[in-house]
């Protein structure tokens, strides 16, 4: 629910939902679920320009990630991995970098690592990572690199039939075009 709320622009609601789920589940939920809730919560807090809570949540996601592989990861969260948390770190830094340029280099690094490790056949996640890469290069002012990533993201998103990915990729392309036109 928090992802849907964030996609619709309800970032406070999204952050509240992720935080509530994490608090309510506490240590009773599998570490992989807690890890993901921290990572996605970091993204939502970053969208609210709450760098302190975003950083704390992201750090906690990375810490918990080391305790996830216990042989009992629920199938629905079996994708949790360093590249998945790297993707969310990239999303978080993209959000923070819109108002705080000091986060750009962290975002570039996180997304480069996620792209390098992302499995070639996992197109949905790859489209998401590449779209975030386009956005971080846009924040950095590297419009050519941003445009290359956005074009790749549109191609991948089209192949995935994911409305979320396609909308995000087109939004990145539009933002790059607007920046080039001085808007």
Explain the overall architecture.
With 183 residues, the chain is mainly alpha-helical. The chain starts with a helix and ends with a helix. It is built from 9 helices and no strands. The mean pLDDT is 92. 75% of the residues lie in helices and 0% in strands. Helix 3 packs parallel to helix 5. 45% of the residues are buried. The protein is globular, with a radius of gyration of 16 Å.
How many distinct beta strands? Answer: 0
Rg (C-alpha, Å): 16 Å
Total helix count? 9
Determine the mean pLDDT: 92
Structural class: mainly alpha
Distance between the termini: 33 Å
Order of helices and strands: HHHHHHHHH
Unreliable parts? none
The 3D shape can be described as: globular
Strand residues, percent: under 5%
Main β sheet profile: none
Give the helix proportion (percent range). over 70%
């Amino acid at each position: 629910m928090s992802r849907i709320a964030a996609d619709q622009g309800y970032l406070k609601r999204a952050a509240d939902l992720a935080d509530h789920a994490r608090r309510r589940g506490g240590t009773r939920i599998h570490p992989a679920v807690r890890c993901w809730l921290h990572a996605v919560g970091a993204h939502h807090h970053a969208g609210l320009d709450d760098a302190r809570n975003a950083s704390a949540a992201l750090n906690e996601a990375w810490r918990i990630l080391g305790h996830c592989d216990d042989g009992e990861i629920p199938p629905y969260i079996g994708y949790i991995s360093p590249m998945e948390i790297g993707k969310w770190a990239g999303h978080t830094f993209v959000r923070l970098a819109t108002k705080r340029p000091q986060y750009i280099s962290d975002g570039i690094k996180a997304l480069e690592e996620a792209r390098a490790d992302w499995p070639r056949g996992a197109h949905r996640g790859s489209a998401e990572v590449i779209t975030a890469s386009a956005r971080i290069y846009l924040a950095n002012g590297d419009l050519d690199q941003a445009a290359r990533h956005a074009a790749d993201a549109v191609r991948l998103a089209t192949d995935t039939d994911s409305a979320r990915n396609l909308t995000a990729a087109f939004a990145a392309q539009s933002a790059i075009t607007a920046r080039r036109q001085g808007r």
